Amino acid sequence: MTEMVPAWVEGRLMPVEKLEAHQRGLRHMAISVFVMAGEAVLIQRRAAGKYHTPGLWANTCCTHPRWGEEAADCAVRRLREELGITGLVTVFADRVEYRADVGNGLTEHEVVDIFVAEAPSDLPVNPDPEEVWETRWVDLTDLAREVKEHPERFTPWLRIYLAEHMERIFGKLRVVQ
Asked: Is 110 a catalytic residue?
C-alpha cells in the first residue's frame, strides 16, 4: 500500500509517498508519542524488518500522519496499531524540527508534533511484530544516561529529543542532566 504523507515540495505542502520523502530528504510532517508512568517512559525497539533504523530503540511510537489526517488522531492511531494501546489521552507537548541521516541513503527531515500520555505501569501492551521487536519501561534519567553511553543503540530522533528538547517535551520537573 502506498502511503502518502504531508511533505513540502518547493515550499508547498503536498502529498508525497513516504519512502520518496525519505529518499529525497524532503521536509515532512511527523508525530512522536511518549507514554509515561510517573518518571518511567515506555520505549520500543523497532522491528528488524523496518526499512530504516531496524533494531534500534525509539520513543513509544512515531510515524507520519497520512495526507489529511490530524496529528492528534495520528498519535492515537499509531499507539493502537503499533502497540495495541487504547484509551490513553495524548496531550500535545511541542513541535520540533530536525534533520537526520537514518542510513541506506535515507533522511528524516521532520516537523514533529510531540505528544505525551500518562499511563499506569501495568498498561497492557500488545506490539505488532511487523513494527515492534520489543518494549520496555525505563526511568527517564536512566534512558538519558543510556543514550549518552550507547548512542548507537538508539534512533537518531530519540537522541535528538533527549539532547536538545527534554524540557520542551517533558517539562521542567522531568529535565535530567
From this structure: yes
